[in-house]
Design goal:
The structure holds 2 protein chains of 2 kinds. By secondary structure, chain A is an all-beta fold. Chain A has no helices and 11 strands. In chain A, strands 2, 4, 5, 9, 10 and 11 form a 6-stranded mixed beta sheet that branches. Chain A has a 5-stranded antiparallel beta sheet with strand order 1-3-8-7-6, with no helix packed on it. Chain A starts with a strand and ends with a strand. By secondary structure, chain B is mostly beta strands. Helices cover 3% and strands 48% of the residues of chain B. Chain B has 1 helix and 11 strands; from the N terminus they run βββββββββαββ. In chain B, strands 2, 4, 5, 6, 9, 10 and 11 form a 7-stranded mixed beta sheet that branches. Classes of the chains: A mainly beta, B mainly beta. Chains A and B meet through β4, β5, β9 and β10 of A and β4, β5 and α1 of B.
Chain lengths: 111, 116
């Protein structure tokens, strides 16, 4: 079983600060997805990265896939209270019908 | 546009009881799956299906059964509930067999199950 570990597990910062959360594995993944989950709801896809070294931006969120396709990071610039939620990374390999999720980072932005 | 609908939202069972968690999607998606979410453990795959009549096991299938008689529905059955099955259960669907490449997973809003 391929494992994905996310760090930190919890993060609480002030509005306006920058932050980075990480998703790491000892295994190679063909692609990696980031989801955000709000209380009482299911996760919602933010981005998919498929190429080693790929960087994708979604407004104030920057996602990077490691060169070796074993790790990924999510950087948020000038965090806002609306960024609060559980961030989950999920990895998959081509030809495999299963998506393996990490343990999650619970982010709280304090106004 | 309903997406993925899960019922019930909350359920309390006694040890040994059985029940079925319902999941329906109206997007004509081929792929459907069930995850459980526990604190500090992320989402773990229970069972999945790549089309009507086809199901397979995920990471934690013991104690759960599934069937896929139609494209729209993918119920999850607990045969004899145990306290270890206390969790939040999510159903998810995707347009294709290989969600990460061609389309994302669309999740329902979950069923919170407590087994006493």
């Amino acid at each position: 079983t391929q494992l994905l570990e996310q760090s930190p597990q919890f993060l609480s910062i002030q509005e306006g600060e920058n932050l980075t959360v990480y998703c790491n594995s000892s295994s190679v993944f063909s692609s990696l997805q980031w989801y955000r989950q709000e209380p009482g709801e299911g996760p919602v896809l933010l981005v998919t990265v498929v190429t080693g070294g790929e960087v994708k931006k979604l407004k104030r969120l920057t996602f990077q896939f490691g060169d070796a396709r074993k790790d990924s990071s999510l950087h948020i610039t000038a965090a806002q209270p609306g960024d609060t939620g559980l961030y989950l990374c999920g990895g998959a390999n081509f030809g495999n019908e299963k998506l393996t999720f990490g343990t999650g980072t619970r982010l709280t932005i304090i106004p | 546009n309903a997406g993925v609908t899960q019922t019930p939202k909350f359920q309390v069972l006694k040890t040994g009881q059985s029940m079925t968690l319902q999941c329906a999607q109206d997007m004509n998606h081929e792929y459907m799956s069930w995850y459980r979410q526990d604190p500090g453990m992320g989402l773990r795959l229970i069972h999945y299906s790549v089309g009507a009549g086809i199901t397979d096991q995920g990471e934690v299938p013991n104690g759960y059964n599934v069937s896929r008689s139609t494209t729209e529905d993918f119920p999850l059955r607990l045969l004899s509930a145990a306290p270890s099955q206390t969790s939040v259960y999510f159903c998810a669907s995707s347009q294709t067999h290989y969600p990460p490449y061609n389309s994302p997973l669309h999740f329902g809003n979950g069923t919170r199950l407590t087994v006493t």
